[in-house]
Design goal:
Radius of gyration: 32 Å
Number of strands: 8
Largest sheet: 8 strands, antiparallel, barrel
Strand content: over 45%
CATH class: Mainly Beta
Distance between the termini: 78 Å
Number of domains: 1
Oligomer: single chain
Number of helices: 1
Amino acid sequence: MKIFAIAAVVLGLSVAASASASASDLYLPEQPMTPVYDDGAFPWEGLYFGVTKGGWISATGSSEWYIEVTKVAGFNILLGDNFVLGAEATVSALVAPAFYLDATITGHAGILIDDSVLIYKLGGVGFVDGDTYGILGAGVEVAIGDSLALRGEVRAVFWDPGVDWFRPSVGLIWHLN
């Protein structure tokens, strides 16, 4: 009888051991992965912010000039595949030879040359030292990362009839989409 009991225990242990080995080798069919859609296009539409550095250069023959550092915030809307409309606000600190704070509000319209290059025109108003002035300009943004663009821009500033100042600048713009 002891032999049957020992045989039953050994048989039970061997069945349990083989069952656990079988469980580790159990085949589960692989679940299909849900693809993540990424069209690779730069996110031109939506909110953006950035920093630019540039200057004010007199267009009237004066030797007066200023260096500026500007904070930029704006919003773009993509129309169709190639057209971009947007609005932007800036705040600048102008230094040398004097210090001023400057703010602008502009609208812009542009065209995408390809997924990574935007060329645009802009117009709006600016405010500095209690004065209001008009702005017309143009720029280009080139995508240099997933949501980072390098910007180059030139603005013409109008106080009197005719251009009084040119404001060239370069900077980095982060698109939040």
